[in-house]
Design brief:
Elements lengths: L1 E2 L3 H10 L16 E7 L5 E5 L2 E5 L1 H7 L1 H7 L16 E5 L3 H11 L17 H13 L3 H14 L4 H5 L14 H11 L5 H8 L4 H6 L1 E2 L5 E2 L3 H26 L10 H16 L2 H4 L8 H7 L7 H25 L22
Parallel strand pairs: 1-5, 2-4, 3-5
Antiparallel strand pairs: 3-4, 6-7
Length: about 350
Amino acid sequence: MTDITVDFLRKRSLQDETQVPIPAKRARTGELRKDEEFWYEDGTIELLAGDVRFRVYKGVLAKHSPVFADMFSLPQPQSASSCQVLESQAVHLDDSPEDLRIVLKAILPPQDRVVVHKKPCLPSYGELSAYARIGHKYQIDYLVDQTLDYLKHHFTNDFDTWRNRMAFVPRKFETYHAIGVVNIARLVNCDSILPTALAVCCTLDAKYLVRGFKCQDGAGEKLSQDDLIRCLRAKQTLMQESSRAIINAFSPFTSPGCRTAASCHDALQDALRGLAGDLDMIADDHPFFSWVYFARRLEGYAICALCKERLKERVQAEQRLIWNSLPDILGLTIKGWPELSGSPQVDGARL
């Protein structure tokens, strides 16, 4: 088995990931073992990842990856006899075998088949992470593009879409996977998903926010120091903005057509006092509650339909102001994020 030099792969990987914490790789243990799924006896190349050997086909890899194509184009040792057939060559990779297996499942079928579906076959975080990281490293562009399309669909820059999300992360994700989403965005320079992904990180328990989480291959995934500092600073600011938004929205106002203005005013102030006792809501580190949550809290208060609708508009206007400021709160500059100048006006006094 002939080794192929892959120093240029390592150099490229280091150049690309200087701003992203590189997960610690699981130590190799014992002898190399053949992968049960991707071991073809007539394969022409072996990929050695961790303690696993994959035997596949050079032509398939080269078709999908310009990096592998360039590597395979290097001059190779000639056989001692023209009749002698060389055994398969080997490439040592520093990727995890779990990630490599996920990508091989995607690229061995016909090129450019859709592997990231919005419905009904939803991808896991582990699959998307493998597609993004290995796809980026080996220039398998369609894997990266489809992954980013999926992440952009959830981690949107559209306020109305985001405030109606019923979960911080896509299905089959855990909330702490937002850390990995941030690191993917950093790796592939996709800044548009950073504000919402980092905002979700701000909601994490301190244990996950600081320590991160373990990937399926045992490697650790955590925020860079810069992004951790961003979240720690932004978390307090977002809590303050949550309180300010609710107080401003509930400040005295008049709804055109309301026939019970005095009683509605008193009921709104009673509701505000009730919210003041719920620190999880009035000082939440994620200030983009859906109106559904507010509507539930207003049940039992004698507030007319017109005033409830006006309150809804005021709450959402306050939230939009925070949304438009989100990159600034996180210390980011995001091209294309809604401009503050386009923010809606909120009637009445504001803090």
